Amino acid sequence: MVMLKECNESGLSGFTVDGLSVTDTQNFFTQTAPDIREAVLNNGALLLRGVVQSAEPAVFEVIMNALGFRTRDYIGGSSPRSTIKGKVMEATRTPPAWSIILHQEMAYVKHPPEIIAFSCVKPATEGGESTIGDMRRITKLVEPSTLQLLTERGLRLRRTLPDENRVHLKPGIKKSWQEALSAKTKEEAEFACRSRGWEFEWWNDDLILWQDCISPVRQHPRKNELIWCNQAHFWGAAAMIEWARVDSRNEDEEELKEAAQNCPELLESMCFGDGEPLPEELTLNLFHLVKGLEQDVNLNTGDILLLDNLQFAHGRHAFSGNREINVIIADWTEH
Ligand SMILES: [Fe+2]
């Protein structure tokens, strides 16, 4: 008989699944969907331990559909990653020496995914713990004057997306326009931008992309709550340099500093809605505020971490060896 036992680890609530066979998986998650969805909504984060079948991408997708989430694609996302199968993607191809700073997925667009789920295929040999952070706390921690300033002026991410042949030359996060927009030609890239209302221009073969102008906080789709949801702490030269420093990536730090000084247009920039870059001090304040929320979660093979993408941010520590985590982004559906 399949058992769903409640567990609680370092303040993160969850269930341990015991004795589940592959053939029972879909039925089991369809039946338990109301409890699991309620726990995700109430707590913002939920850990499902022992779902060994979920390491198989097709089964992971079946589980997310059985739970009643509508899966989404990742067009316009910023992390270097590729699709594995169906709507299942690798978590990120960001090199192991990089940590990943806490962030809500695609929080720089108007409609970020409402749910993000991680399935652990293989944990890292050393390091690589996942991190989560309760973003409901930021609205209370941030200076009221900062919240007012960002609410009045808005936030807008300006991205530099090189052609895939030149992407290795870019300091910081390396993602080409072909990868970011799932496009093979410039025409396809332009279509992807226009259909989402994003402004763009070409600098020779590189694409400069302006994503949506957003408010720093959003209304939760199922709760009467305004939640901090943006990546003002993540982008911009000051954040990239601080991130490299925290990771002890000395070469990256120097490369980013030089680019910030001599050719800032090579780097992304987090701007106010009118295009003026955020002041360095504000970026760094937010960087450390969000970093202070980091909470480690150890994922083992067969574990699924379900996050409400508004209530909880996610990240990871640097690692060595192989680390395989799959990811699905999705939205709530009526259920
Ligand atoms: Fe992410």
From TrEMBL:
Superkingdom classification of source: Bacteria
Name of this chain's protein? TfdA
**InterPro entries per record:** AlphaKG_dependent_hydroxylases, TauD-like_sf, TauD/TfdA-like
The question of whether Oxidoreductase is a record keyword is answered with: yes
User: Has the keyword Oxidoreductase been applied to this entry?
Assistant: yes
Required cofactors, per record? Answer: Fe(2+)
Q: Which UniProt keywords apply?
A: Oxidoreductase
Which GO molecular-function terms appear in the entry?
2-oxoglutarate-dependent dioxygenase activity
Q: Where are the transmembrane segments?
A: none
Limits of the TauD/TfdA-like domain:
15-326
